[in-house]
Design goal:
about 220 residues; mainly alpha; 7 helices; rod-shaped
Length: about 220
């Protein structure tokens, strides 16, 4: 399994991943680390990890991520590296000076395994190339995941933005219509009030006229 794929769950966790993790936590074997495996034909023994991360000056290193990355590199590294690394780890308990440690480990490898400097250098060059290959795999995996998850959501965002723009235009039209109707209501209401006043005045005038005529006829025709 390449690094890009192996880190998928670690970096892009979804609800399904969380449920799987919860189930594993409940199992009797929870917390146990899986036994390291080595590809067929490349039987490189796993060695203790002694590489320090103190050289990292920016940010905080994710140890789990670092362990996975180192595991991928160590698993595919040439056997010569494993021999040198084992000797270096063994001697690190008595030698703290990095220069002396490297020299002592190489001398031991040179004596015990007939290792040459060129061979050791080649192993580290191979590890660097493996690391670069894993970076490229990871970047490819990240881009694929981005398209799967982020790309779909970006399309949804674009669709929602279009809907908002359309609804905003409809809102502006509705506000303009509301303003027009409100003005028409005020204008018509004022006209109705004016007509009511006119009718009241005309009614009172005619009523006064008829009342006066009625009074006169009643009084004069006795």
């Amino acid at each position: 399994m390449g690094l890009g794929k192996s880190l998928k769950g670690m970096i892009f966790e979804d609800e399904g991943d969380e449920r799987d993790k919860a189930k594993k936590a409940e199992s009797p074997d929870a917390g146990k680390k899986p036994e390291p495996t080595t590809p067929a034909g490349n039987a490189v023994p796993q060695t203790p990890m002694s590489t320090s991360t103190s050289f990292v000056s920016k940010g905080v290193v994710n140890k789990e991520l670092l362990d996975v990355l180192r595991g991928q590199v160590d698993k595919a590294a040439p056997a010569a590296f494993s021999q040198f690394q084992t000797l270096r780890d063994t001697l690190s308990s008595v030698l703290t000076d990095p220069v002396l440690l490297v020299r002592a480990a190489f001398k031991a490898a040179e004596s015990g395994h007939k290792m040459k400097k060129e061979e050791l250098v080649a192993t580290f060059e191979a590890r660097l190339q493996i690391l670069e290959d894993e970076r490229q795999k990871f970047e490819t995996g990240v881009e694929t995941r981005r398209k799967e998850v982020v790309g779909g959501k970006e399309a949804q965002v674009s669709q929602i933005e279009d809907q908002i723009a359309e609804l905003s235009a409809q809102l502006v039209k509705a506000q303009e219509l509301l303003k027009t109707l409100t003005g028409e209501i005020a204008d018509q209401s004022q006209k109705i009030v004016s007509k009511q006043q006119e009718f009241k005045l005309a009614h009172e005038a005619l009523k006064a006229e008829l009342t006066n005529d009625f009074t006169n006829i009643t009084n004069y025709l006795q």
